[in-house]
Design a protein that fits this description.
Oligomer: single chain
Distance between the termini: 58 Å
Bound molecules: S-adenosylmethionine
Strand content: 15-25%
Number of domains: 1
Number of strands: 8
Largest sheet: 8 strands, mixed
Radius of gyration: 26 Å
Length: 239
């Protein structure tokens, strides 16, 4: 059932896609839990919950003001999440809510969207609902009022994410887990090390028998020798 309420598209700017390393980190933390129906709030393409597709008997329900990728989900609700009520999720038996909300301020409430999303999640699903929410670092400390609000929630794990992990924005952020027992309470997630593969570009050169013998007798490591020559000849030859 797709809700045909008028949807304000400007709610949805600042789309920051969750990189696979973050989605996999959340999956790794939760894969052994009994989870059957996950609600991805502000789901967009579903990158945040994609690894859970591997989990047997698990359905992913997406909700977003943009419905361009609704086929990526087992069920999709096209609606402003902040206007939803319990009725919208009737019979869906949601047992985990995951969200990567917009990080900006909601002009209607003056709160940052992550706070409005969290408040609404706990209003609709109850304060004991297991929730995973990605928030910027400043969300945790730049407002006394918000810190008091967070202090009353049951944060069971925090994973600090290095600023280079999100590839389209440089931002330090955190994965907050609420009401979920986990092995470790605090983790750090750094960027993936990109190993540059060395390719063999020049596989062979044509040599006479004599030239070949000369090289073999005089130059023990021909590749290294050529690289050294190139370095000497061209200062700009990359290391
Ligand atoms: C930061 S993006 C995250 C996209 C995706 N979940 C991911 O992690 O790759 C936030 C998403 O929330 C959606 N969104 C913003 N406000 C919303 C609202 N009030 N109700 C539902 N979706 C909303 C946006 O359209 C956008 O797709």
């Amino acid at each position: 059932m797709i809700n045909t309420n008028k949807i304000t598209k400007n709610l949805s700017d600042n789309i920051v896609i969750t990189p696979p390393i973050v989605a996999e980190e959340i999956y790794k933390t939760l894969k052994r839990k009994q989870i059957h129906n996950i609600l991805d709030v502000g789901a967009y393409r579903g990158d945040l919950t994609k690894p859970f597709k591997k989990k047997k008997n698990t359905k992913i329900i997406g909700i977003d003001v943009i419905d361009d990728y609704k086929e990526n989900f087992d069920y999709f609700i096209h609606k402003d999440f902040l206007k939803t009520t319990k009725k919208d999720f009737e019979n869906l038996n949601i047992d985990l809510v995951i969200t990567n909300p917009p990080f900006k301020k909601n002009p209607k409430t003056g709160n940052l969207y992550p706070q409005d999303f969290l408040q609404h999640i706990f209003n609709v699903f109850g304060e004991k609902m297991p929730v995973v929410c990605i928030v910027p670092n400043y969300f945790l400390y730049n407002s006394k009022k918000r810190m008091e609000y967070l202090n009353n929630l049951n944060i069971t794990k925090i994973t600090n994410i290095h600023k280079d992990v999100f590839t389209n924005v440089k931002i330090e952020c955190n994965i907050l887990y609420f009401n979920i027992k986990t092995k470790t309470k605090h983790d750090f997630l750094g960027p993936e090390k990109k190993k540059e593969k060395k390719k063999r570009y020049f596989k062979s050169i044509a040599l006479t028998e004599e030239q070949y013998k000369f090289i073999k007798d005089n130059i023990p490591n021909f590749n290294k020798y050529i690289k050294e020559l190139l370095k000497k000849e061209f200062k700009e030859f990359p290391k």
